[in-house]
Design a protein that fits this description.
2 domains; 642 residues; 6-stranded antiparallel sheet; 26 strands; 18 helices; alpha/beta; oxidoreductase activity, acting on CH-OH group of donors; globular; 29% helix; 7-stranded mixed sheet; FAD/NAD(P)-binding domain; Glucose Oxidase, domain 3; flavoprotein
């Protein structure tokens, strides 16, 4: 029976694929013909010809993601400095601008397609019991393929960074950089002292919500959980509200669009796309100066020199890997691979943190109006009218962000206990919740199942029975995990993916908090607002663990272990720390320990993960890093390094 059900599901996928592809082709051609604002041909970034590459630049930036784009734009503001940006991917295809389509570009040619090591404790419903980790291979990095949610984190996150010995990273200092990067366009918050205007990254509300959004907000209000002013980046964070996104006129505002399209023509800034960095070049001791980068472009190897600094901004997976293959990291990992040790740094690749989520709790609902839907049923939206609405009338389905129409931050009882030990009423939630207006059955498994890498067998058994029914998901995220993972390279070749040991739920408190989050989500579904539309948990998910009591803590733990999903926030693998921390990789000025003229400036330097989505904090790090570099080189004109 199981095999037959899976077989039927597989054939249904195949029959659904053709019409979906037809409408996407219509959309592509319609945007090309009718939306010059999206095509934006005049401002698209052009790579220099490789024969125009200079032998030496003041600064060489490796990685054109969220951090690298901001760094290149800010450093090239000084016309006396020459800057080179190396990015392994190409420019963003113009369909990346459409919020609704963001999951399509995961597990695609624009994705590095990492996956974590198999586990018997998480990702049990996934292919090979591996969590899939999308990482962007495109200019703009993950800001080009993410869900665009603009969350800065909590003020206590940054004060904690400073308390750990990282001077200059407290909330009062970093708030300036959040405001500097921002162009707040939401009229409700434009005059808030917490927000900025005229910065490269535009911030707006998502357009085209489903009818579920006001019902979600009613449910949160009935539990007393509504946010006081609807701004997670303002005075307080706790509560539920529709989130802001990195959007411009309803479309994606990536770091590429925000920073690079207005700076790439500067004569002192060169950009090489499809340039894969293979190794950092280091002078031997006693100098240990990082003098350049070797990279591959169009099947040929090139070497470029940096007269001032090499800046590593390749992200929380690629930055530590490039350090390791260049001989910078724990000696015991490098020497067996024949890599010459340049600097023993045991913390490289360690301290890995991520926001693990549970995405499987699907609730079906019933509309009171016949022949109308409360949620998004994708095949009904993927049609000629939706394409016409978008390309000609600039409205409709493709502007929507169903994955989190309402977002919430809440305190588990464990966080409340800790707050009682510190100070009562502290606003530092340990749970984030996404209230999404479709479930895994809403698109027939074409995108959601594929993106999460759920097996055909599991999908057929648990989600096929609620196929194309009105449904929603409330997915809790663990904000500050106690568990720590690590990376392990298996080759001296930077093209070979490292082994990623996520170690989700290693610490028992992490699972306890996740269960609390799932129970809070379920309480929301029992409010009058959601019971009015008959919100009902998909009973077929019980098939994963039929031996446990339904709706018990063990039931919720089962869901967490089966439907574990990254929210694409790996950080911490090149930890910023004072000299007293043996696992520190960079100092508070972002300089790599024991080496000269090398900094890491991206999400890998975070000592602890922020309370919320990590793209905005990553850009903030680049903004602050650019100012640190300017300060150091102007203050130390003989070389910038003590």
């Amino acid at each position: 029976m199981t095999t037959m059900t899976t077989f039927v599901t597989m054939w249904r996928f195949l029959f659904t694929l053709a019409p979906s592809a037809v409408f996407l082709l219509m959309l592509h051609n319609g945007v090309k013909d009718y939306r010059p604002d999206i095509v934006d041909e005049a401002n698209r970034v052009r790579s220099i010809r490789i024969e125009e590459l200079r032998q030496s630049y003041d600064f060489v930036i490796v990685g054109g993601g969220s951090a690298g784009c901001a760094l290149a734009a800010r450093l090239s503001e000084n016309p006396a400095w020459s800057v080179l940006l190396l990015e392994a991917g190409g420019d963003e295809p113009f369909l990346f601008d459409l919020p609704q389509l963001y999951p399509l570009f995961q597990r695609s040619p624009w994705d590095w397609m990492y996956s974590v090591e198999p586990s018997d404790r998480y990702c049990l419903a996934m292919e090979d019991q591996r969590c899939f980790w999308p990482r962007a291979k495109v200019l703009g990095g993950c800001s080009s393929i993410n869900a665009m949610m603009y969350i800065r984190g909590n003020r206590h996150d940054y004060d904690q960074w400073a308390q750990l010995g990282n001077a200059g990273w407290d909330y009062a200092t970093v708030l300036h950089y959040f405001r500097k990067m921002e162009d707040m366009r939401d009229p409700q918050h434009q005059h808030s002292p917490y927000h900025g205007h005229g910065g490269p990254i535009s911030v707006e509300r998502y357009r085209t919500p489903s009818p579920l959004l006001p019902i979600f907000m009613q449910a949160a209000t009935q539990l007393g959980l509504q946010h006081p002013d609807g701004d997670f980046n303002g005075r307080t964070q706790s509560g539920f509200a529709p989130p802001h996104g990195t959007l411009r006129d309803g479309l994606r505002c990536s770091a590429n669009k925000g920073y690079m399209r207005r700076s790439w023509r500067r004569p002192n800034l060169d950009i090489v796309l499809k340039a894969f960095a293979e190794q950092l070049l280091v002078e031997p001791a006693p100098s240990k100066r990082v003098w350049g980068v070797r990279f591959e472009h169009a099947a040929l190897r090139h070497v470029v020199r940096a007269s001032k600094e090499v800046l590593l901004a390749a992200g929380a997976l690629a930055s530590p890997q490039l350090l390791l293959v260049s001989g910078i990291g724990p000696a015991e990992q490098l020497q067996p691979l024949g890599i010459q040790l340049q600097q023993h740094l045991p913390g490289v690749g360690r301290n890995l943190q991520d926001h693990i989520s549970t995405s499987g709790a699907v609730y079906t609902v019933q509309s009171a109006q016949p022949n109308t839907h409360l949620s998004f049923i994708v095949p009904e939206q993927l049609n000629e009218q939706s394409v016409r609405d978008f390309v000609q009338s600039r409205k409709g389905f493709f502007y929507a962000m169903p994955v989190s129409e309402v977002m919430g931050f809440a305190h588990s009882r464990y966080q409340q206990q800790q707050q009682q030990q510190r100070r009562a009423g502290e606003d530092w939630p340990d749970l984030q919740l996404f209230m999404g207006s479709y479930g895994y059955g809403a698109d027939g498994g074409m995108v959601g199942r594929r993106g999460a890498a759920i097996t055909l067998e599991n999908y057929a058994q648990t989600f096929e029975p609620v196929l194309y029914q009105d449904s929603f998901v409330i997915a809790p995220l663990l904000m500050r995990p106690r568990s720590r993972g690590y990376l392990q390279i298996v080759s001296a070749d930077a093209r070979v993916h490292p082994r990623i040991h996520a170690n989700y739920y290693d610490h028992p408190l992490d699972m306890a908090i996740m269960v609390e989050g799932l129970k809070l989500a379920h309480r929301l579904t029992q409010t009058p607002a959601l019971q009015r539309i008959n919100a009902t948990l998909n009973i077929y998910e019980w098939r994963n663990c039929p031996e446990v009591e339904y709706l018990s803590d063990a039931f919720w733990e089962c869901l967490a272990r089966y439907y574990s999903q990254t929210i694409y926030h790996p950080v911490g693998t090149c930890k910023m720390a004072p000299q007293s921390d043996p696992l520190g990789v960079v100092d508070p000025r972002l300089r790599v320990r024991g080496l000269r003229n090398l900094r890491v400036i991206d999400a890998s330097i975070m000592p602890t993960i922020p309370t919320g989505n990590t793209n905005a904090p990553t850009i903030m790090i680049a903004e602050r890093g650019a100012d640190i570099i300017k300060e150091d080189w102007h203050h130390y004109p003989q070389g910038g390094w003590l």
